[in-house]
Design brief:
Structural class: alpha+beta
Radius of gyration: 43 Å
Number of helices: 10
Distance between the termini: 77 Å
Strand content: 5-15%
Oligomer: single chain
Amino acid sequence: MAVTLPRPHRDDARIALAGLLGGLLVWGAGLGSRPADEQVVLWPGQWPILLPLAVMTGCELLRRTRPRSALLIGTAALTLDTLTQGNLVTVVMFTDLVYATVVYGPPATARRVLWTSGLSTVVGAVVPFAVWRVPEALLIGVVIGIVVFTPAATGWVVRNHRDIAVAERLRAEQTALLAEIDRAQAVTAERARMARELHDMVANHLSAIAIHSTAALSLDDPATSKDALTVIRENSVEGLAEMRRLIGILRDDSGDREPAAAPTLGGLDALAESARTNGLDVALDAVHDSRLPAPVELAAYRIVQESLTNALKHASPGRVTVTLAQLDGSLTVRVTSPYGDRDGPRAPGSGAGLVGMRERVALLNGTFEAGPEVSGRAKVWTVRATLPITHRTVGGTE
């Protein structure tokens, strides 16, 4: 099967053409590297000079695509050139092949060429001097160093700078990718946070509206309908106010306005009273430190709020108990409601409330449980969340 050589790089083609033209110009001027009567010249005359020149030109076409092959063939061409009167351009092109092999060749080849050229330079200087004992013998090592070691060392420096540049570019790309991932995660987390806030703030009011509107439509009692419409109006106004506040936070990107105060556990009494207005029998028992971290207070408040909303939609008739207790560096929130004697929910739900509560607790590295359990002879639905409290988050000190 025929072997297809890779297409030469355009710069390599230009270098090869320039070398060929320069070599022909030197050849045409009759400028050989050595006189015809020198002892090493086995093929005197002008025409033998063209063969190594042509071979070296062909090697230049492969300097980037096949650097090792080009160097091996170029070494043979340089050896052949030394048996003729020689052409300086052929030697210059060989130095370029050494440089290209170190720059574009495999790392192992680059190191091998560098060490071999350095060793050749030392041997080329020491051995002739040791044999002939004349200072002029050191010039052989100098010439070898100029022809072989200097381009190899230059190529090694260029290769190192190129590798460093590539590594820096890859590091910059990785940094940009990580920044984009962080940004996407931040956007996702913010969207999830806003979804939880929107659900927790509005779902309670909308659930009460749905339940009382159903009662107003199903009962033909003016007094009952009036009471239901009163509750509907109160929840509509409060829900609309909450919605406007949230939309204002989303639209206000100037940073001039102070952020709206997050609800705290001090508002649990008002929250329980609102649930009683909506028809729940709520018993609140909250014992906790008045200086809890703001994230813990917000999470506990939202968990109680969502639990009351779920009780309003799903609980059977009976008492809903809300208990908050602080013990051993954590705040435990427990909400129980009667469970199991209702045909269906009083208002539709999507299950997003439980997901939101679980996410809030997970963000604080707490534990969350929700499900039916037996309490005495009754079956109740229990929501239990344990929120860790660290001293660092209270007052900002240990």
